[in-house]
Design brief:
338 residues, eight-stranded mixed β-sheet, globular, 8 helices, 13 strands, homodimer, 60s Ribosomal Protein L30, Chain: A
């Protein structure tokens, strides 16, 4: 039987958590006590967000490799920091899991999470483990940002241009393939499977946007464009028009190069771009007068203008010159199961 | 069917989360965006801790009133801040729950958590809801502390006196009664049931200890004295002797006045004081030369000296002049079920 101490040891061996002499000025007390202590530098704010990752809801135990589960649990929380233009620093993990997952599965999970933590230069500073019938993780991420400006969802104004990074719908395609073909699809190294298992938070673009003061509003796309756009519009008290032809869809099977697929496939691709979840790309809005400052690529990631905010508070999709309402059909955390 | 937005609305209506003009300097951005933003004042550190509260592990859906579940989920996380001498400020909540708990149960849960938040003067600044077969909450609490000193588990030295606040074992007695008598025990208003359902984090004593620099080490008693003392001793690299006769046991049925019970009952009471979990009292150590500065009561809560730290790294219980090893038999999060 594994004990709590054994589980904590397995996690901290593989996830960066040690506070060296160099870091002690910023983290006077790390993991292992009742709480951790972090010290702010003047002129900087803390940016804090929390996310859960639950077996049967956010991942499937029989399909998803534990390494990817550990990576993604942290990466999706970090995506919220990217959307604020913040730089990741620390995280806390509560992990509930069954006895049968406390051995090799846990080691692989910790390796994946440790890899993500190194990639994002983050340190685990606190946590809590308990037993449960299935795996349930909750992660709180802490980042820093210069005092002004932080990117919010609220600042969009009518006339602002809407942009997205990367391609939309790739993660959804990856999930569909994984569901259809099972674990053998993992060996195929398809772009869409990679996008589903190892999303890359757009930290560099988020920082750039916050630093340059170009964007009026921003958020990350976790639940699908149609649902997340409705949230940004509600927060900014505006509407929007999205141009179907402009969407950077493409399942990415050809590494992001757009295809000319037959009609049925094209419609499925459009639906995935509009409603597919878990792309963890950024969506942001830019006042028209600043639009020329937005590059077409940033560190190799395409940035695409897909529409405009409007004063009329409706969300519309324009196809071949005709507009129709764009209902929010992305991921609804509480309604469906995965 | 409840939606995510409906659940978030129910929570934020009952739990303080609105950032008024007065608070905006400290919390430039509260709940509702991708992340929250908090601003530190110079000379203060942030103290951060996370805890989970899971149905079937930490509470029983058929026994525990949702109001108490909401209260206790926050209170036990706050107890970790008390143990550091920090002042609570903000918290984030991830809540996974089944559809059938998303109505009245959720309202009562939110009322209980809202009451706790008001009591501890905390604000909800972030969260995440998702669906699950049973209720699973994870809470991250953020407090502030003056830069020096923060109370840790590490600072205990051989010869230091060991103190505890309040009475030990009352919460365990309350749980036993609740298990035995079912929900009708809730109407009895017994002290031990109150202690089990509504533990009070020792924030004032924690602050006082940190401010006065009296304590060498401190932690909260969440898993039982025998288990938590072993943790403090391991962190401080010392051993300890506990004097059985000195323990402030007492189920508290007579509001904390000690009884002279028959032998069998006395032994059960001793066992609960040593191994009973969830008292959320503080345990702290004080160098002998400062012991005279520790009061016998603080704001009505008794403070009792129960033993000493030793250089020999064993944990012993002294009864009538004889010592024997004191095994860690408190709550082991991963092994047992409640």
């Amino acid at each position: 039987m594994r004990t709590e101490a054994d589980i904590i040891a397995r996690l901290t061996q593989k996830i960066p958590s040690r506070i060296g002499a160099r870091e002690a000025a910023d983290v006077p007390l790390g993991i292992g006590d009742d709480a951790a202590v972090v010290r702010a530098r003047s002129g900087r704010d803390w940016v804090v967000s929390t996310d859960s990752f639950i077996e049967g809801r956010h991942f499937l135990g029989r399909l998803h490799p534990p390494n990817a589960v550990g990576y993604k649990a942290l990466a999706r929380a970090v995506s919220d920091l990217a959307a604020m233009g913040a730089t990741p620093r620390y995280f806390l993990l509560t992990l509930a899991l069954p006895q049968r997952r406390a051995g090799n599965w846990l080691d692989d999970f910790a390796c994946g999470m440790g890899g993500a933590a190194r990639m994002f230069r983050m340190r685990l500073i606190g946590g809590d483990v308990s037993r449960n019938q299935h795996v349930a993780a909750a992660i709180t991420v802490i980042g820093v940002a210069p005092r002004q400006p932080v990117l919010t969802r609220r600042g969009g104004r009518p006339g602002d241009c809407i942009y997205v990074t990367g391609h939309l719908g790739a993660a959804e395609t990856g999930l569909e393939i994984l569901r259809r073909e099972g674990r053998r699809a993992l060996r195929s190294n398809l772009y869409s499977i990679q996008r589903h298992l190892h999303p890359v938070p757009r930290l560099a673009i988020g920082s750039w946007l916050a630093e340059k003061g170009v964007a009026s509003a921003a958020m990350d796309l976790s639940d699908g464009l149609s649902t997340d756009l409705a949230r940004l519009c509600a927060a900014s008290r505006v509407g929007a028009v999205i141009h179907a032809a402009a969407l950077p869809a493409g399942s990415g099977e050809r590494l992001g190069i757009r295809r000319s697929p037959p009609r049925g496939e094209r419609e499925a691709e459009l639906r995935r771009a509009l409603d597919g979840g878990e792309d963890y790309e950024l969506m942001f809005t830019v006042p028209l007068r600043k639009a020329s400052r937005v590059p077409t690529h940033f560190h190799g990631v395409p940035i695409t203008r897909i529409g405009e905010l409007t004063s009329r508070r409706a969300i519309l999709l324009e196809t071949n010159g005709r507009t129709r309402p764009l209902p929010a059909r992305g991921w609804e955390h509480f309604a469906r199961s995965r």
